[in-house]
Amino acid sequence: MQPNQSAPSIATNLGPVALVVNTHSRQGTTLFVDAQRALRERGFALSETRAVRQPHRLREVVRKLVADGERLIVVGGGDGTFTTVVDELAYRDVVLGVLPLGTANTFGRTLGIPLDLEGAVDVIASGRVREVDLGKIGDDYFTSEISIGLATEMVRHTSRRLKRFLGILAYGLAGLRIFLGHHPFRCTLYLDDSVETFETHQLIISNGPYVGIRRLIPNTTLDNQRLLVLAAKSPNRWGIVRLVFCYVTGLGSIYPETLHWQTRAVTVETEPRQDVDVDGEMDGATPVRASVAPRALKVLVPVRHES
Fold first, then answer.
1. What is the DSSP string of 212-275?
2. Distance (Å, rounded) from C-alpha 145 to C-alpha 115?
3. From CA 126, how far away is CA 113, in angstroms rounded?
4. Do the beta carbons of residue 125 and residue 255 sit within 8 Å?
5. Which of 131, 227, 280, 299 has the least C-beta neighbours within 10 A?
6. Is 144 in contact with 107 (CB distance < 8 Å)?
């Protein structure tokens, strides 16, 4: 792709760019220098460039940039990276530019951002600012999804080294190892206007139309002020096989195999207690409460993007 050599009006209006890349993410080390080059080629001045090897320092780095008055912060990393940094950006007069450098890149897909570096930088150069919803779990924000059940065990048993070399296929290999030994759990949801109890292998709370690498949820956007709750309908393993087949191949709809609700907030209780994964990172256990934070984040998206 040939880069756009001229800086757009958004760059002029927001001032110089602060670039932060999680070099512990799958492609971070390789693309940190390339990201600087691509931004400069499009006319951006770089006020700060930070390669962060230790993911726990990302929030601290972004907090300082916000305190220093940066108005456009470009972040490169995976879904866990963005969920870490949005705590410092929510409801602030700061615009986020997204470089999806992770494994699933659910947040980038939801925003319509190309997954190649040049395409993502083009969006930063020529996109528009949009205010989108975030999810909230306790006092922390998240960008894309909470997972409880089989997929959470897949994340737990997938090493960063394996993700670095195999990408999204690494989760599939982990899933094969744990699938036959996984047991359903009893789940109770306290939704806006109902209480639901059922047995399942998998529960997902999604902020937006994507679950992992697939756009599965129609009529859902990042600014509809609702979370979508999905649960595998069948507690037996073959029901899960059908659901996974639809997800992996993109053939057929997941809806015949799922229960689903839209809600502003949900409290999840399980028996037995289940681990909780938030955007690819382990984050405590049930019970857990999630809610929507309306129009909490300013982010650059493609001009024609509507999700």
1. TTEE--TT--TTSS-EEEEEES--SHHHHHHHHHHHHH--S-SGGGEEEEEESEEEEEEES--E
2. 19
3. 12
4. no
5. 131
6. yes
pLDDT of residue 164: 57
Cis amide leading into 287 (omega within 30): yes
Please count the other Cβ atoms lying within 10 Å of the Cβ belonging to residue 213: 18
Q: Give the residue ranges of DSSP H helices in 43-182.
A: 58-67, 79-89, 106-111, 117-126, 150-156, 160-166, 169-178
Cα radius of gyration (the chain): 19
User: Is the Cα dihedral 39, 64, 163, 259 positive or negative?
Assistant: negative
> What is the rounded distance in angstroms from the CA atom of residue 145 to the CA atom of residue 290?
10
φ, ψ for residue 234 (rounded to 5)? -90, 130
What pTM was estimated for this model as a whole? Answer: 0.84
Mean pLDDT by 10 residues, the chain (307 residues): 43 81 77 94 95 94 98 95 97 97 90 96 94 95 93 63 52 55 88 95 89 73 91 70 57 66 97 93 93 97 80
Instruction: Determine the 3-state secondary structure of 34 from DSSP.
Output: helix
Q: What share of the chain is helix, strand, coil (3-state, %, to 5)?
A: 35, 35, 30
- With left for phi above 0 and alpha for psi between -120 and 50, is residue 77 left, alpha or beta? left
Looking up tokens 């209480």 gives 195
- Report residue 43 as tokens: 């006319």
Segment (H or E) for 292? strand 288-301
Domains (range + CATH), the chain: 9-132+297-301 (3.40.50.10330), 142-294 (2.60.200.40)
